[in-house]
Amino acid sequence: MALSRGLRCCQKVFSWIPVLIITSVVLWSYYAYVFQLCLCNVNLNNNVAMAYLLVFHVCFVMFSWTYWKSIFTPPASPCKKFQLSYSDKERYEMEERPDAQKQILVEIAKKLPIFTRAQSGAIRFCDRCQVLKPDRCHHCSVCETCVLKMDHHCPWVNNCVGFSNYKFFLLFLSYSMLYCIFIAATVFQYFLKFWVGDLPNGPAKFHVLFLMFVALMFFVSLMFLFGYHCWLVAKNRSTLEAFSAPVFVGGPDRNGFNVGVRRNLQQVFGEDRRLWLIPVFTSQGNGHYFPLKNVSESQNPLLANEEMWEESDDCSDEGSLGESLKF
């Protein structure tokens, strides 16, 4: 046991290495751009330097804010309504027949807004967390918990990307691209001057040359990743659902949650477009259920009368998740 705890502790420590790498690169880029390019060694016009610094700091603040929110926003987990009650858990564990266990889960799931199934057609149940998995919920072996609308576990933010922070992750990618392209665009002319020898050698030359290469390298990588996630948002799919289609009663359907581009965007960013580019939580719902392509809320009494299955437990507290994530 002590060895196992030691290994888990080491794993948690090492999991922060990618974050430290990104943080180190960003801090170096700040030093290189602000001090080496704008203030010290490259003769910039004062007005140009002030304009560069103003826009740079806006990009830097938005990047840092979204990166912080992506890292430190805890992944949302299913509320207590999806956990087995003591009597149901005892009945489930005492039952040895798999078919009978499946039937017990089916009876419990009838009271919940669960429409997806396992590949076998059974109700999705997590043995580790002892919960019935809401639609789009998956267990993360790294975070050791079930995550609502799990997209993937990202080592670069050392966190699960899911319902609670997916908007923050998308904004982090977009502001990272903006940060890189701004640096590359403003450094390019001085990169050429250093390259052809029009400017004297010195510490600034090294920093300017590497700023150009690093900014372009990260921009190209981020461009493909951001483009992929834009496609996922437009289709209302997670990364996991793109690789393995969610299974419904009628069978697998990759577009089961696709309710149109506009509504798909609103599920992630909210209805108020003024807040779309700001890293505050505005996603719709509480992560436990999602509109279906083939079932409207008016046709589904569980979704149309949400309070009927929330009022008896603290799912209503989970429903106010957005309010707590705004701060």
Automatic annotation (TrEMBL):
Membrane topology: Multi-pass membrane protein
Annotated localization: Membrane
Keyword rRNA-binding: no
One GO cellular component term: membrane
Transmembrane segments: 12-31, 51-68, 168-192, 204-228
InterPro entries: Palmitoyltrfase_DHHC, PFA4/ZDH16/20/ERF2-like
A UniProt-annotated Pfam family: DHHC
Group of enzyme by EC: transferase
Keywords of this entry: Acyltransferase, Membrane, Transferase, Transmembrane, Transmembrane helix
Coiled-coil regions listed in the entry: none
Its EC number(s): 2.3.1.225
Annotated family: Belongs to the DHHC palmitoyltransferase family.
UniProt-recorded name of the protein: Palmitoyltransferase
Annotated organism of origin: Myripristis murdjan
